[in-house]
Specification:
By secondary structure, the chain is of the alpha/beta class. It has two domains: about 130 residues, Rossmann fold (3-Layer(aba) Sandwich), CATH 3.40.50; about 150 residues, no CATH class. Helices cover about 35% and strands about 20% of the residues. The strands form four sheets. Strands 4-5-1-6 form a four-stranded mixed sheet, with helices on one face. Strands 7, 8, 9 and 10 form a four-stranded mixed sheet that branches. A hairpin with a 6-residue loop joins strand 8 and strand 9. The longest helix has 21 residues. The radius of gyration is 19 Å and the shape is globular.
Length: about 280
């Protein structure tokens, strides 16, 4: 969800940073195929890993990431930390990463309300100017057992004074790779009902698309049967801006435009930006 939101904002011309605060399961480096990248120490802090530079001619903004995964010796190494060490790492990430001039910093957190969330909320309240923190985006799956957990997260936001920009319902159906029919294997509507109960915006439903997994895992450009239309876009039409030249031979941001979920997330990103800018004004 974080990766797709960042790619969508980048495609909209915004410069974006991702801070991966899922300390015990940092997955952002793997999603962007930069697990072997090394963080550079610069005067004043750490430099984030660049996924791609800005491309003004094509209206694409820059994207950089920072994660604990870059600091671990091996991909499978476990992070066995108690609360105080997690708190110190969160504070260091928020203060010592040199993001430069970016439009949005997306902070990816683990599920639930744990040490990472408490440290994040406290640090942001202490170190940011009023209005600088746009708010939180809550992610749920449709089942009642999932929405029950996310209710606690929304209550956490209320208690800490964190504005909620909206709710996204993930895994809202499965898209068949052969016929593009969407089947609601986990039911649907739970995210919309949750947003209604808390009087926050429902940002949209995101189905499971196996093509997205193939894109992140192998760099394969998504392909769809003829006539696959998502949010008014024909996803089966060829796109010369994202040639299928083999794994990782063209930019991920270009390939992502060929994914059906890019059409879904374009709308979600627009709504999040509108909500954030409405608060700023």
């Amino acid at each position: 969800m974080t990766a797709q939101l960042a790619l969508s904002l980048s495609l909209a011309g915004r410069s974006v940073g991702i801070l991966d605060l899922d300390l015990t399961g940092p997955s952002i480096p793997r999603l962007f195929a930069v697990e072997d990248a090394k963080v550079t120490q610069a005067p004043g802090g750490w430099l984030p890993i660049s996924i791609h530079e800005a491309d003004p001619a094509r209206g694409i903004g820059s994207l950089g990431v920072m994660s604990l995964g870059f600091l671990l010796p091996g991909r499978g190494d476990a992070v066995v930390w108690r609360g105080p060490k997690k708190t110190a790492m969160v504070r260091q990430f928020l203060s010592d990463v040199l993001w430069g001039d970016i439009d949005y910093l997306i902070i990816d957190t683990p599920p639930g309300t744990s040490d990472e969330h408490i440290s994040l909320a406290e640090t942001l309240l202490q170190r940011t100017a009023p209005g600088q923190v746009a708010g939180a985006v809550a992610v749920t799956t449709p089942q009642k057992i999932a929405t029950a957990d996310v209710r606690k997260e929304l209550n956490f936001c209320a208690k800490t004074g964190m504005r909620v920009l909206g709710v996204v319902e993930n895994m809202a159906g499965f898209v068949c790779t052969n016929c593009s029919e969407c089947t609601y294997i986990f039911s649907n509507g739970g995210g919309r009902a949750l947003a209604h109960d808390f009087d926050v915006k429902f940002l949209g439903s995101v189905p499971i698309d196996p093509q997205l997994a193939l894109l992140f895992e192998s760099g394969r450009v998504p392909t769809y049967p003829a006539g696959t239309v998502v949010n008014g876009r024909d996803m089966s039409a060829p796109d010369i801006s994202a040639p299928d030249e083999g794994p990782r031979e063209s930019r991920l941001v270009d390939k992502y435009k060929r994914c059906s979920l890019s059409a879904v997330f374009a709308t979600i990103a627009d709504d999040i930006v509108a909500a954030a800018e409405a608060e700023d004004s």
